[in-house]
Amino acid sequence: MTTSTEAPPVRTPDAAQGSDFARLSRRIIDAGLQKRLPGYYVLRFTLVGLALVLGWTAFFALGDSWWQLAVAVGLGLIFGQLALLAHDLAHRQVFTKRRPSEIGGLIIGNLGIGMSYGWWMNKHTRHHANPNHEELDPDVAPDILVWSTDQAREAKGLPRFIGRHQAGLFFPLLTLEGFNLHVAGVRALRQPHMKRRWLEGALLFAHIIGYVVALFLVLPPGLAVAFLLIHQAVFGVYLGSIFAPNHKGMPTLRGNARPDFLRKQVLTSRNVKGGWFIDVAMGGLNYQIEHHLFPSMPSPHLRHAQAIVRDYCEEIDIPYHETGLVQSWREALRHLNEVGAPIRERAGAES
């Protein structure tokens, strides 16, 4: 499937096309793939929780030792796994009801890793509703990077400066993503959509203060700073490496381009092939197409749903794109390089 930035032609669905997703949904339900898996999540929460406890136990036990940098790497990966659990909670894959999902999300997100659950929920809900739509999906807004040639032509300030070489800068910039999540969460406390800003703020600052105090009480200043930088960099790169392959480099939409739900979700998403290791490392988000079609589906069921969705897409002639992890990164970076061309051309003309 092409990875161009232009959206595919949008066919106006007729009565039969309008029921395409309904027929697929019936097949998924008949296969029992929407049923909850409480045993799986008890095990997963237990294992990730134990890893977190062991990580912080090692931190306090080691004290003033350069082995702490290895602990920082490990905790960065564990924080990534916690973020994936918060993601599943947000989509009600764990609990069917909103309240326990929110409580779990606030504990893991705000208190556990310093990421605002309310801010992320607002952002991620808009992304799921309109993936890769330049005006409606906040994940492809030209904040620092540009995601289409149209955005590149209009770029000013920081996006224009970075956009010339954004493919080469992408992974280095991910080292700052952990810090960005903390800052964005604090800034979001002033936004009107935040329903429990005092609670969210209290949990966020409890995490930040507790984290910084622990670092500088246990470690000398230089080692504390090194631990903080490595921990947050690993956390950011890990999350970015999970989320970037999902949509970056896939077709983007603009204006009134609005395919029906099934085509919108499939055409803008990319699956990542792999075995159990990829499933665990990416928290099931390697089945991005299936996740976008059935966001409340427990993550272990996504791999079973894939065969049904892929065969159905072939049956009704919808392109279905999947590739390996490294190739998915290549496609995303190639896309970033291609869409940055207008900025490089403009810079060359002005020099």
From TrEMBL:
Question: Whose protein is this, by species?
Answer: Streptomyces armeniacus
Domain Fatty acid desaturase residues, every copy? 65-323
GO terms under cellular component: membrane
Q: Which residues cross the membrane?
A: 41-60, 66-90, 102-120, 201-219, 225-244
Q: Does the keyword Mitochondrion apply?
A: no
Which InterPro entries is this protein grouped with?
A: FA_desaturase_dom (IPR005804), Fatty_acid_desaturase (IPR012171)
Protein's name according to its UniProt entry:
Acyl-CoA desaturase
Q: Which PANTHER family match?
A: DELTA(5) FATTY ACID DESATURASE C-RELATED, FATTY ACID DESATURASE 2
> Some GO term, biological process aspect, for this entry: which one?
lipid biosynthetic process
Molecular function, one GO term: oxidoreductase activity, acting on paired donors, with oxidation of a pair of donors resulting in the reduction of molecular oxygen to two molecules of water
